[in-house]
Design brief:
- This protein is an alpha+beta fold.
- The chain folds into two domains: 4-86, lambda repressor-like DNA-binding domains (434 Repressor (Amino-terminal Domain), Orthogonal Bundle), CATH 1.10.260.40; 137-243, no CATH class.
- Helices cover 39% and strands 20% of the residues.
- It has helices at 4-14, 19-26, 30-38, 49-60, 64-87, 102-124, 145-151; strands spanning 162-168, 172-178, 183-188, 193-198, 201-207, 212-216, 219-221, 231-237, 242-243.
- The protein has a five-stranded antiparallel β-sheet, with no helix packed on it. Strands 4-1-6-7 form a four-stranded antiparallel β-sheet.
- A hairpin with a 4-residue loop joins strand 8 and strand 9.
- Helix 4 (49-60) crosses helix 5.
- The longest helix has 24 residues, at 64-87.
């Protein structure tokens, strides 16, 4: 019996739809689309997994709600297998139970903590050899505010320009297009604040819309969507009008 990911891939191939076409239509990274079809969900941003699957389903003509139900069943089946494996006793697995002294347990805990700290530092500290590519949000996971500020220096204000301010209260992905020209793909962390200048409009797609505060020329808008919700193709005009 084919699993969830195999089912999606089979449906796409039967419709003769290329992954690259889905990437263009949905703005989802080709890397993430391949992960969905291979069942490698661990590399997907957890907040957006179901949103990505919905968009994928729509792009190939499947019912998004039914597809999400299939995914939920897939997740539950994996949990059941994992719980069953964990519940097996050492005797059932053919292994011998090991007894450790309190001293050994404490030592093991200290070693584990040190390893965890080292791994966390390596995972989240910025690389000196490879500068962060802020045009690829997959690589901006741990960019701090100082790096944002240095990478996005505001253009000198002009009388005919509008100032867009973005402030993250949660982890948020933003695709921003200014005046149908320059495009930014941003993964903002809580506390990040950015400012951009435009002459006519700002077009955005926002992941986890409830975590982004938006202001135009100092006027604060309420969040454009709830937490975890993806808002697509919303435009803020220079006069403050919002079009969805």
């Amino acid at each position: 019996m084919e699993n969830f990911s195999e089912h999606l891939k089979k449906q796409r191939e039967e419709r003769k739809i290329r992954l690259s076409d889905i990437a263009v239509q949905t703005r989802i990274s080709l890397k993430f689309l391949e992960a969905i079809e291979s069942g490698n969900f661990e590399i997907l941003p957890e907040t957006y997994i179901r949103a990505f699957i919905r968009d994928y389903a729509k792009a190939i003509g499947l019912d998004p709600d039914e597809t999400i139900k299939r995914y939920n069943m897939h997740v539950e089946s994996l949990k059941a297998v994992s719980e069953q494996t964990e519940s097996e006793t050492p005797e059932k697995k053919g292994t011998k139970s090991l007894n450790f002294t309190n001293t050994q347990k404490i030592a093991a805990g200290i070693v584990g903590a040190v390893i965890l700290i080292v791994l966390s530092y390596l995972a989240f500290s910025p690389s000196k050899k490879a500068p962060v590519d802020l045009n690829n949000y997959e690589n901006t996971v741990d960019v701090n505010q100082r790096k944002f500020d240095s990478a996005y220096t505001a253009v000198t204000a002009k009388s005919d320009s509008a100032r867009l301010s973005l402030s993250a209260t949660d982890t948020v992905w933003v695709n921003l297009v200014i005046d149908d020209g320059k495009t930014y793909d941003l993964l903002m962390k809580p506390g990040n604040k950015l400012a951009f200048w435009g002459k006519r409009k700002f077009s955005m797609t926002i992941g986890n819309a409830g975590g982004l505060l938006i202001a135009l020329n100092g006027h604060q808008y309420p969040p454009l969507g709830a937490s975890g919700v993806v808002i697509r193709n919303v435009t803020i005009l220079k006069d403050g009008t919002i079009k969805k």
